[in-house]
Amino acid sequence: MMSKIKVAELFYSLQGEGQYLGTPSVFLRVFGCNFKCAGFGMPRGQLSEERLAIDPEKYTEYDKLPLVHTGCDSYASWDPRFKHLSPMMEITEIVDKMQEMLPGGTFGPDKHLILTGGEPLLGWQRSYTELFEEIAKREMNLTHITFETNGTQLLKPEFIDWLDSNPYYPGLDITFSVSSKLPSSGESWEDAIKPEVVQQYYHHSSLTYFKWVVSNQDDYQDVINAIEAYEKVIDVGMMNIPIYLMPAGGTTKVYDNNEKWVAELAMKHGWRYTPRLQVQLWKNAWGT
Ligand code: SF4
């Protein structure tokens, strides 16, 4: 029997951040996360309760939910209180929807597939191989998959076999975009910074890169500390792993205040800078 995946959102948009910024992409946001990231946008040491004030009973559609300004902005993709808004979908149903939303019904070099969350590498690794197989069966010319991950979940041996052999797609590009959670998230360093996990991604992908949100000097110091911690363990060092800094801000006002100094910081260290298209173009609305 084919697996099902619990789908928080499935939509077509532009990749708003990182290496493939601006690339039209199908986003599959799966349900579930191992973190809460209630510290985002809060003074250090405090946790947001904004999400808890939202009454799940009042909502029947995911994209009608209120946006939050503190804590994880995709809370409905993991908080069990909102799980009724994320249906379990058959793999075939998911791929039907992808075909409908993609211009021409296919991927190709300029249209990517993005697996996001929540944390997309938690429990769905087995289902992904079936998903990719179904896409291949329909000859949709998939060329590129990005996993947007918090960098804490090891890959399962069967999934590694699949990634390494790529039986359905010779030449398929696999990217891991790792946003490991710095202390501003409210999560603990020990839980969030897992160099051995990122090393594993590196060895089973075409590209692995870091993307960190920065909102102040403390975040900047945390980035330095995280790089040091990764550098100590990752066997290829950090030379082959690009680093992107991204200004904090789910609202345009906060974002505008952060972008220039974060850009200058990136230049100073020789790191990359990425804007956030989804804030600039769509005010961070659901489905973007
Ligand atoms: S890891 Fe990502 S999805 Fe999970 S709680 Fe943190 S910000 Fe939200």
Structural account:
By secondary structure, this protein is α/β, with parallel strands linked by helices. It has eight helices and nine strands. It has a nine-stranded mixed beta sheet with strand order 3-1-2-4-5-6-7-8-9. Helix 1 crosses helix 2 and helix 5 packs across helix 6. The longest helix has 18 residues. 37% of the residues are buried. The mean pLDDT is 92. Bound molecules: iron/sulfur cluster. The site of iron/sulfur cluster (SF4) has 13 residues, from loops.
Task: Summarize this structure as a short list of keywords or feature phrases.
18% strand, binds iron/sulfur cluster, 8 helices, 288 residues, 9-stranded mixed beta sheet, alpha/beta
Strand order of the largest sheet: 3-1-2-4-5-6-7-8-9
Order of helix and strand elements from N to C terminus: EEEHEHEHEHHEHEHEH
Task: Tell me the span between the first and last alpha carbons.
Answer: 32 Å
Mean pLDDT: 92
Q: Tell me the β content.
A: 15-25%
Q: What characteristic shape results from the CA principal axes?
A: globular
Query: What percent of the residues sit in helical stretches (DSSP H or I)?
Result: 25-40%
Cα-based radius of gyration, to the nearest Å: 18 Å
Low-confidence stretches: none
Please summarize the sheet with the most strands. Answer: 9 strands, mixed
Q: Supply the number of helical segments.
A: 8
Ligands present: iron/sulfur cluster
Number of strands: 9
Question: How are the SSEs ordered, and which strands pair?
Answer:
Layout: E1 4-14, E2 24-30, E3 88-90, H1 91-101, E4 112-116, H2 125-137, E5 144-149, H3 157-165, E6 173-178, H4 189-192, H5 195-203, E7 207-214, H6 217-233, E8 243-247, H7 252-269, E9 272-273, H8 277-282
Parallel strand pairs: 2-4, 4-5, 5-6, 6-7, 7-8, 8-9
Antiparallel strand pairs: 1-2, 1-3
Helix pairs in contact: 1-2, 5-6
